[in-house]
Amino acid sequence: MIDLGVVAGEASGDLLGAHFFDALKKERPGLTAAGIAGPRMVEAGVRAIHPSEKLAVNGYVEVLSHLPELLWIRARIARYLLRERPRVFVGIDAPDFNFTLEARLKRAGIPTVHFVSPSIWAWRPERIQRIRQAVSHMLVVFPFEEAIYRDAGIPVSYVGHPLADVIPPEPATGAARAALGLGDGPVVALLPGSRLSEVRRHARLMLEAAMRVRAREADVRFVLPTASEAARELIARAAQDLDLPLTVLAGRSHEALAACDVAVVASGTATLEAALFKKPMVITYRVPALTAHLMRKQALLPWIGLPNILARDFVVPERVQEAATPDALAADVLAWLGDAARRAALGVTFDALHRDLRQGASARIAAAIAPYLEAAR
């Protein structure tokens, strides 16, 4: 019998889940948890029935090819949790996988908490009906999300963003550069995404953009953190015919962001991390054409990157689909490197964003979960 059932999807969910579980263990050192987890959550003490990388699939087209395996995993984890009957289940991100699972557990009398709202404010707002059926309590990381759930009659708590607590207000750029051996010249971080499908779509694009930047800035260095050994191998193949001063890292994305002057980032949690490190960036993303068409039809906002969504403005450029070309990315990077005043103004914007999201998420998470852990089985 376990206290906490959990399912976290991909690298970002694993990172958030580790913060989540660490926050609970501060109050309850003997807390037990099991489910779908990545290496950071396992290190924090969660028993992994399946690795979270199995859920690292996004987009309509991509999900179809993995659907049989995903359905098998969900059925197996559901049987496990229904047998173990945890005091509470926590779904971390991975909404399409988790909401169906949460609805089944909730019907069986197991309270369900979902951590990190899907972007119903950006697309597919009709999902609020499904969420009402599946979720006993929603924990949101952005302040404007709280009213959405309150108005829909869904119990909700704004906890702030754990990354805003972990990332320091002032990035230690010099120390990070020294640790990575990057020297004093311009440094550009390349973050193609944590999913292998993202790395396949973005790695060569970013590396070719890097070649164009280097043609204009001879002393520039590039740093590229990878989320797995498989991603590292994909990067090596993509870069094998390119003459670039490139440092490829196993993990260490926060050091890469702290060290850089500008980042080229695939849309996702990494864009928020770059903003919390106060770094100018270019946001990019590519998906299969059919996925892009379907997503555009359902989009509610003109932005895809979290920094722009939170600022309600294009404070950093976005290059998506056909607009995501090596020339365009390189031009955006060079524009940031050549405009110190613009970089400084963006830093002020990102500093205010950091203060808004820095809410002591660990304590708020523990307080929101406590009633479920203390209730009798």
Protein model, in words:
With 377 residues, the chain is an alpha/beta fold. It has 2 domains: 4-160 and 359-374, Rossmann fold (3-Layer(aba) Sandwich); 173-357, Glycogen Phosphorylase B (Rossmann fold, 3-Layer(aba) Sandwich), CATH 3.40.50.2000. It is built from 17 helices and 13 strands. The chain has helices at residues 10-27, 39-44, 60-84, 95-107, 127-134, 145-151, 162-166, 173-180, 196-216, 229-239, 253-259, 269-276, 289-298, 306-311, 326-337, 340-357, 361-374, and strands at 4-8, 33-37, 47-51, 88-92, 112-115, 137-140, 156-158, 187-191, 221-226, 246-250, 262-266, 281-285, 318-320. The strands form 2 sheets. A 7-stranded parallel sheet has the order 3-2-1-4-5-6-7, with helices on both faces. The protein has a 6-stranded parallel sheet with strand order 10-9-8-11-12-13, sandwiched between helices. α3 (60-84) runs parallel beside α4 and α4 (95-107) packs across α5 (127-134). The longest helix is centred in the first third of the chain and has 25 residues, at 60-84. The N and C termini lie close together (11 Å).
Topology:
Blueprint: E1 4-8, H1 10-27, E2 33-37, H2 39-44, E3 47-51, H3 60-84, E4 88-92, H4 95-107, E5 112-115, H5 127-134, E6 137-140, H6 145-151, E7 156-158, H7 162-166, H8 173-180, E8 187-191, H9 196-216, E9 221-226, H10 229-239, E10 246-250, H11 253-259, E11 262-266, H12 269-276, E12 281-285, H13 289-298, H14 306-311, E13 318-320, H15 326-337, H16 340-357, H17 361-374
Parallel strand pairs: 1-2, 1-4, 2-3, 4-5, 5-6, 6-7, 8-9, 8-11, 9-10, 11-12, 12-13
